[in-house]
Amino acid sequence: MTKLAQSALLAAIFSLALASGAAQTLSGTVTNGTTGKPAAGDEVILINIANGMDVAASTKADSNGKFSFKLTDSAGPHLIRAVHQGVTYHQMAPPGVNSADIEVYDVAPKVTDLSVTADVIRFQADSGTMQGIRLFVVNNTSSPAKTQMNDHNFEFYLPPGAKVEQLQARAPNGQPIPAEAMPEAEKNRYAIAFPLRPGETQFQLEFTLPYSGEIKIDPKPLYPAAHVVVVLPKTMQFKAANPSSFQSMQDPRQGDTNIEVAQQTKPGQALGFTLQGNGVITESPGEVASGAAQQRDQQQPQGRDNLPSDNRPGGGLGAPIDAPDALQQYRWPILVGFAVLLAIGGWVVTKRQPGTSVAATSAARPGAASSDRSAAPRPTPPTATASATSATSTPVAKSSMLLEALKEELFELEVERNQGKITPADYEKAKAALDQTLDRALRRQG
User: Fold this and answer.
1) Could you give the angle at the alpha carbon of 387 between the alpha carbons of 368 and 21, nearest 5°?
2) If residue 262 lies in a helix (H) or strand (E), which one and from where to where?
3) CA atoms in the 13 A half-sphere facing the CB of 97
4) Mapping DSSP to helix (H, G, I), strand (E, B) and coil, where does residue 386 land?
């Protein structure tokens, strides 16, 4: 009986060891979304988010696109990065998840199916200076799906005398990272060398202008845009050069904010306007977003393309018409509200933490500074590893990066649940793990 008990104990320990070993492994497949074939030979990088975006390991996808990592910290969230033709792609791996598949795409210098879903410009002025936040939401619907990448990948104009203060780029399903707006030969024209992957890419630009109480602005659109949105305090006056080009979305519930919208604009279309007066936006981003969505709902009649608004808490993430993938069924008004929220939220963060800088470096394509071919306005030297991950200069910035990644994953999880793409049991498991990690991150940042 003693020998039998010992054998049983050894078998139990061996089984637990095997189970523990399985839980410590993170594996997946890299697939080329352009060809539908395995992305054999692509570099795959394991990033430990809990340790400040540290590179934990790297490997190559095998002939079937498979990869595998042994985890030293299975309790924390991880990020998987795949590098294909010099461009990076990411997939979150929350605690308790042992598989993460990644889709990459071939790179082309130009794709035809490129459009701007929203171009949101937010102004405020005080003490002889006008401050602006501009948010571009760019949609790549190429078929077969390809990533557009060249030295002048996305271009735009700024008003004369504008000074670029900060630029952030956000890839589809990614988190914001610093990027750089490079001036071109033509005056007031800039370019961003950041990959436009299939799906929705966002650029958020902060700039300042000398201001004497009145100024003329011309966005000079270079791409077709579903919506061009101007947000300003109600203490400032807006006057379009062509009154029929913009539609006002004023609403008493929006506090001190006015919103003007031009729809279905064309490249080169005259969208000039004049701003007068001074003022700052003091209401919360949620109030701006909710008011914009509600006002648009009132102005548009119900119909086949105008579905009833979503009454989820906070106005919900409603549904932009031209948004890709999981958000495709939603309406555009709340995209505008969400874009305004992002812009104002970014404004608040940059003003409250002026000393925090974030630099991003990753696997570089030949002759480029990084795999995204973008850099912060105040770049830091790349690490010795060519495919190094994003780094932060302070613990506060590291915690902020973690929080952004967790918020993104929570959002994607909610979208999957609403679309029925995840079982209730899997949803509860993933949600509990993310909530626990988020709580730890908040305590660390506090």
Assistant:
1) 165
2) strand 257-265
3) 24
4) coil
- C-alpha distance from residue 402 to each of 76, 168, 349, 387, 437 (Å): 11, 16, 15, 19, 9
Instruction: Kindly list the averaged pLDDT for each block of 10 residues, start to end, along the chain of length 446.
Output: 53 48 78 97 91 86 96 80 94 87 96 92 93 96 96 95 95 88 96 96 96 94 94 93 90 73 94 95 52 45 35 28 30 44 46 40 37 37 34 47 64 68 75 70 62
pLDDT for 400 equals: 58
CA 412/CA 427 separation, integer angstroms = 11
436, exposed or middle or buried, with CB in 10 Å at 0-12, 13-18, 19+?
Answer: middle
Per the structure block, which two tokens stand in for 399? Answer: 């915690």
Angle between helices 333-352 and 285-299 (to 10 degrees): 160
Which residue type is seen at 110? K
Q: Could you give all domains of the chain from N- to C-terminal order, each with its CATH number?
A: 26-107 (2.60.40.1120), 114-348 (2.60.40)
Question: Do residues 174 and 213 make contact, with C-beta atoms less than 8 angstroms apart?
Answer: no
β-sheet bridge partners, residue 174: none
Contact 159, 269 (CB under 8 A): no
Burial class (CB in 10 A: 0-12, 13-18, 19+), 88: buried
Side chain identity, residue 35:
T
**Three-state secondary structure call for residue 153:** coil
The reported pLDDT for the residue numbered 370 is: 39
- Residue found by looking up tokens 């940059």 in the block: 350
Spatial contact of 74 and 95, defined as CB atoms under 8 Å apart:
yes
CA distances from 282 to 20, 132, 249, 256, 347 (A): 52, 15, 18, 7, 12
pLDDT given for residue 445 in this prediction: 58
A 10 A CB-CB count for 321 gives 15
pLDDT number for residue 239: 96
At 122 the three-state DSSP class reads: strand
AA letter at 69: F
What backbone phi and psi angles, to 5 degrees, belong to 97? -95, 130
C-alpha neighbours within 13 Å on the C-beta side of residue 50: 18
What are the backbone dihedrals phi and psi of residue 271, each rounded to the nearest 5 degrees, phi first? -125, 30
395-418 vs 424-445: helix crossing angle, rounded to 10: 160
- 330 to each of 143, 175, 263, how far by Cα in Å? 22, 22, 17
